[in-house]
Amino acid sequence: MNEKEYILKIYEILDKNSKDNIVFLDRKDPFQFLISVILSAQTTDKMVNIVTVELFEKYKNAKQLANANYDEVCNIIKPTGFYKVKAKNIINCAKALTNKEVPNNIDELIKLPGVGRKTANCVIGDIYHQGAVIVDTHVKRVLNRLNVVNEKDPTKIEMKVRNLLEEKYLYRFSMTVNLHGRECCHSRKPNCDSCVLNSFCPKIGV
Fold first, then answer.
1. 107-165, pLDDT tens digit by residue?
2. Is the pLDDT of residue 68 over 60?
3. CA neighbor of 35 nearest in space, from 47, 53, 52
4. In 127-165, which positions are buried (b, 16+ CB within 10 angstroms) versus exposed (e)?
5. What gap in Å lies between CA 60 and CA 90, rounded to an integer?
6. Contacts by 1-10 with C-beta closer than 8 Å and gap 24+?
7. What mean pLDDT is predicted for residues 181-192?
8. Which residues are catalytic?
9. pLDDT reading at 38 higher than 90
């Protein structure tokens, strides 16, 4: 099969074997979700979901967070790691979005402080239900093992997937691959025996 047939087959298998609604972050308000994704870098979604309870009880919207005390924000988000940079980014992002809607396209989103393509794709996929390719460590690992890509650069991986799959499949594909990486295709000890893709994985056991 060619590349497009191959990735579509992966999509179909993972879609069939994954839960219907894959959610990692609790927040559904667009601004709060965006801030949550920024905080999720180099930490777990579970930790972000814990920290944002206090953060958004104290600062409920962009205007309030824009006027927040930096040290107080640092103290709240400290468990997520890299908290000094993250505090600066989320406060500046809030300032940029005060009295504005969260952008619904990648080009505008990546202009915001602390927002890269991964974060932007999370927003347009989860909040705006557009075609999104979210390339994190799990997606990168799984797609390389499956030989969908032979590439470490997240942007190049995103563009390759965009070229191979129809837009309507992109976000669901990202989420099922991510979930597969978390639950089965682990970094050190992948569960190859129980993997739904093991019949044609070229790197089984790696």
1. 999 999 999 999 999 999 999 999 999 999 999 999 999 999 999 999 999 999 999 99
2. yes
3. 52
4. beebbbbbbbebbbbbbbbbebbebeebeebbebbeebb
5. 13
6. 3/148, 3/164, 4/164, 4/165, 6/148, 7/148, 7/161, 7/164, 7/165, 7/173, 8/165, 8/169, 9/200, 10/146, 10/148, 10/173, 10/177, 10/197
7. 95
8. 118, 136
9. yes
Give the pLDDT band (50/70/90) at residue 204: low
Residue 37 lies in a domain: yes
Q: Side chain identity at 182, as an amino acid letter?
A: R
Same-domain pairing of 69 and 85: yes
> What's the token pair of residue 41?
């870098």
Which of 126, 142, 160 is at the close of a domain? Answer: 126
Residues 51 and 80 in one domain: yes
State the pLDDT at residue 108: 98
Domain count, the chain: 2
Question: Amino acid letter at 155?
Answer: T
